[in-house]
Amino acid sequence: xxxxxxxxxxxxxxxxxxxxxxxxxxxxxxxxxxxxxxxxxxxxxxxxxxxxxxxxxxxxxxxxxxxxxxxxxxxxxxxxxxxxxxxxxxxxxxxxxxxxxxxxxxxxxxxxxxxxxxxxxxxxxxxxxxxxxxxxxxxxxxxxxxxxxxx
Length: 151
Description:
Blueprint: H1 3-9, H2 11-40, H3 47-79, H4 90-117, H5 125-131, H6 133-148
C-alpha cells in the first residue's frame, strides 16, 4: 500500500487530531495575554509576579507550543493529501496566510513571556488587552474561510 493511500484512509483521524490541536492552541492563545494583563498589575520580584512567570512559561511550553506544532503537522498533512486538493483553491491560500499570522502572534507572545521572565516588561495592561483580541479575530476569519469557502 502506498503511503498516500494509507493517509487518505486516515483522513478523518488526521482531521480530528488537527481540530483537537487547534482547540488546544487557541485556548492557550486566548489565555496567555490575560495572564500578561494580570502580571502587569504585580510588582516585579513579588510572589505574585513569580507565580505568573511560572504559569506563563508552563502554558507556553507545555500547551501552546506543542499544540501549535501538532496543528501545523496535522494541517500540512491534510493539505498534501491528493484527495483534498486544497493548494489549488484560493480560500486555502488566504487561510494559510492567516495561520502564518497566528503563528507570528504566537511568536510575539513567546517573546513577551521572556520579557516578563526577565522583569523587563514595559507595556501597560491595556496593550495586552488589545493583543488578546488578535487570536480571536484571526480564528474567526480562519473558521469562516474553512466553512464558507467564499472564493
